[in-house]
Amino acid sequence: MTTATLHPAAAHATSTLRGPAVAHAPVPAPGWHEFPEFSVRPARRDDGPALAALSRPFAQAGALRERPLSLYLSRACDFLVAQAPDGTLEGCLGLREHPAAGVLYNFCVASHRQGTGMGARLLHAALARARTRGLATLFTATTGSGRLFLGHGFGPASPSRAPADWARSLDPARGARVLARSL
């Protein structure tokens, strides 16, 4: 089942150029796409294999570090997932808590869902989770443009400001940039 997601401003378009207002059929705003609905929820331990499978293409492309299935099983509670109506996981984002700060990691959205707003919804859910847990700052590392993070208030940060054990785990050969955001 698919439903059209419309930009809120497009939902009630009217014209008042000549005569009384005339209602028009809703028209999607540029950049909005029709796509199946999805829900964002906390991951469960039994999601471990699906998290690993979803992440594998990103690790193979060098965008994520390779992680063993055991990590996805043991840290499933770190993750938020985007789930399609058929139960398929199509996006995930981990939030690891450290004293006073959190680290976002393993952020991926299936290729057919990129550009649909799924990543932004996952990021908003992670920000809300971090706030409810009293974290003052969030950090992440990216080898890509970081455009989504930058658009949501993250900025370049020194790894020395980040949780020390996480900062030490960064692989300099990957050339990742550290980004941070205060909450």
Summary?
It contains 5 helices and 11 strands, in the order βββββααβββαβαβαβ. With 183 residues, it is an alpha+beta fold.
What would you note in describing this structure?
By secondary structure, this protein is an alpha+beta fold. It has helices spanning 48-60, 69-74, 118-132, 147-150, 164-169, and strands at residues 3-4, 14-15, 22-23, 34-35, 39-42, 79-83, 89-98, 101-109, 137-142, 155-156, 177-182. Strands 5-6-7-8-9-11-10 form a 7-stranded mixed sheet. A two-stranded antiparallel sheet has the order 1-4. The model is unreliable at 1-34 (pLDDT under 50). The two termini are 37 Å apart. The protein has one domain (38-182): 3-Layer(aba) Sandwich (Aminopeptidase), CATH 3.40.630. The longest helix is centred in the C-terminal third of the chain and has 15 residues, at 118-132. Helix content is 24%, strand content 27%. Helix 3 links the parallel strand 8 and strand 9.
Descriptive terms for the model:
Aminopeptidase, 11 strands, disordered N terminus, alpha+beta, 5 helices, single chain, 7-stranded mixed β-sheet, 183 residues, two-stranded antiparallel ribbon
List the helices and strands and how they pair.
Elements: E1 3-4, E2 14-15, E3 22-23, E4 34-35, E5 39-42, H1 48-60, H2 69-74, E6 79-83, E7 89-98, E8 101-109, H3 118-132, E9 137-142, H4 147-150, E10 155-156, H5 164-169, E11 177-182
Parallel strand pairs: 8-9
Antiparallel strand pairs: 1-4, 2-3, 5-6, 6-7, 7-8, 9-11, 10-11
